[in-house]
């Protein structure tokens, strides 16, 4: 597949932000003898699909890059459309990619799949969670949008049969009795989380948005497993009136949830491994369009780095455009220093940290209306104060 480079001077000019101010960093970042590059992995029409959406990317323990996305075969609409979930692998840092592998194949309206998220377990298995069926809003307990878990034991080269875990998450048989008042659920696509600190190390978790029976409003819960994804439990409510969300383990052991909102983005904290949650709030310095994005840890003092650093990918706009990187050096208390990943119409994004320290981005660009899925390799030396190459 052809590489599609754009001019760095265009890509990395920091926007004149009205809501989020780019600030001069007070700490020096490490340098890497690596280069920026990008390439388009899926365009409308590729592999006989009209559209592609919903990116997820994960750097595995062996250094391979694994991606998933929705193959929206006939149009760009969400479920209950006929959608496949496909994966690809790169073993050379994102320069070349395998042919797509189908994780879950849709077979018609109300029989498709979508919104995948990834995590690598402590035992090396890769877990992919997603939903399928008649869609979020039409779901009922008797005719549900179903939640699935699929497992790869060979680093994403092949996948087992999807396991239906719907009844454990919500409805009359839910593992958490508070979830009996919901009619549907879906996972925040992109990255899940595996804890590495404290008594819950090894726990894997995904943020889910559950739809109330009474009002059709969404609340966020955490779906978690302590046995590498073989059994599942559901937390207490993490965020009321939420949406797609992402999770991050902080160096002090707290779990942070970042929640899609229109305007100031929502957040909350858990001090017991994601089971119970505090008082929710909103980041006034992270005010963006209601859109899915991703959280990534780049540096951690308790892992030997000179300082802490988190990245958040979101549109730097009140519309779906100018997806950017936002940086926090205080474990998510504040966000600064926007970096434009694509100057133009762009939507969902997912982040991962490569073994060489580069940041891998999987990004939806839609300059011509329909979404394209792009991979970007961003060396840390590009994260300067102006968003331009040093």
Report on the structure:
The protein has helices at residues 8-11, 166-169, and strands spanning 37-42, 51-59, 65-72, 83-90, 101-104, 113-120, 126-132, 146-152, 163-164, 182-187, 190-191, 193-194, 204-212, 218-225, 233-234, 245-249, 255-259, 263-270, 281-288, 294-299, 309-315, 323-328, 336-340, 346-353, 359-365, 372-378. The chain is mainly beta and 390 residues long. The protein has a single domain (8-23, 32-382), classed as Neuraminidase, CATH 2.120.10. The strands form six sheets. It has a five-stranded mixed β-sheet with strand order 9-8-7-6-11. Strands 10, 12, 13, 14 and 15 form a five-stranded antiparallel β-sheet that branches. A four-stranded antiparallel β-sheet has the order 1-26-25-24, with no helix packed on it. A hairpin with a 5-residue loop joins strand 2 (51-59) and strand 3. The relative contact order is 0.17.
Question: Quick summary of this structure?
Answer:
This protein is mostly beta strands and 390 residues long. The chain has two helices and 26 strands.
What class would the helix/strand composition place it in? mainly beta
Quick one: biggest sheet?
Answer: 5 strands, mixed
Q: What is the top-level CATH class? A: Mainly Beta
Shape: globular
Tally of individual domains: 1
**CATH level 3 topology:** Neuraminidase
State the strand order across the main sheet.
Answer: 9-8-7-6-11
What is the end-to-end distance? 29 Å
CATH architecture assignment: 6 Propeller
Task: Please count the helical segments.
Answer: 2
| Low-confidence spans | 1-33, 385-390
Mean pLDDT, to the nearest integer, reads 91
Q: Which series of helices and strands comes N to C?
A: HEEEEEEEEEHEEEEEEEEEEEEEEEEE
Q: Tell me how many strands there are.
A: 26
Percentage of residues in strands: 35-45%
In percent, how helical is the residue content?
A: under 10%
Rg over CA atoms, rounded to whole Å, is 19 Å
């Amino acid at each position: 597949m052809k590489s599609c480079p754009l001019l760095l001077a265009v890509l990395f000019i920091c926007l004149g932000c009205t809501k989020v101010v780019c600030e001069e960093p007070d700490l020096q970042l490490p340098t890497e003898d690596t280069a920026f590059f990008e390439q388009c992995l899926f365009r409308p029409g590729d592999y006989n699909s009209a559209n592609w959406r919903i990116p997820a990317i994960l750097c595995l323990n062996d250094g391979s890059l694994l991606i998933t996305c929705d193959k929206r075969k006939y149009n760009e609409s969400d479920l209950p459309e006929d959608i496949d979930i496909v994966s690809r692998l790169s073993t050379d840092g994102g320069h070349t990619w395998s042919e797509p592998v189908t994780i879950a194949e849709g077979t018609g309206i109300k029989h498709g799949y979508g919104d995948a998220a990834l995590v690598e377990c402590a035992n090396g298995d890769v877990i992919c969670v997603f939903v399928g069926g008649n869609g979020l809003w039409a779901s009922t307990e008797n005719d549900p949008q179903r939640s699935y878990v699929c497992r790869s034991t060979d680093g994403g080269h092949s996948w087992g049969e999807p396991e239906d875990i719907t009844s454990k998450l919500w409805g009359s048989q839910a593992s958490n009795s508070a979830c009996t008042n919901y009619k549907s659920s879906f996972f925040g696509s992109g990255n899940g989380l595996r804890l590495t600190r404290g008594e819950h190390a090894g726990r894997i978790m995904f943020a889910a948005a559950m739809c109330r029976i009474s009002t059709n409003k969404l609340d966020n819960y955490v779906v978690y497993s302590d046995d590498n994804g073989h059994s599942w439990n559901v937390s207490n409510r993490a965020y009321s009136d939420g949406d797609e969300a992402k999770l991050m383990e902080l160096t002090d052991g707290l779990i942070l949830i970042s929640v899609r909102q229109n305007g100031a983005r929502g957040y909350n904290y858990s001090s017991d491994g994601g089971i119970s949650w505090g008082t929710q709030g909103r980041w006034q310095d992270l005010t963006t369009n209601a859109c899915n994005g991703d959280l990534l840890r780049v540096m951690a003092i308790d892992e030997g780095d000179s300082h802490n650093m988190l990245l958040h990918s979101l549109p730097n706009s009140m519309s779906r455009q100018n997806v950017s990187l936002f940086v926090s050096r205080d474990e998510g208390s504040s966000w600064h220093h926007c970096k434009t990943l694509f100057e133009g119409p762009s939507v969902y994004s997912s982040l991962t940290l490569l073994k060489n320290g580069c940041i891998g981005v999987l990004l939806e660009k839609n300059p011509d209306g329909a979404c394209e899925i792009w991979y970007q390799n961003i060396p840390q030396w590009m994260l300067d104060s102006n968003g331009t190459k040093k």
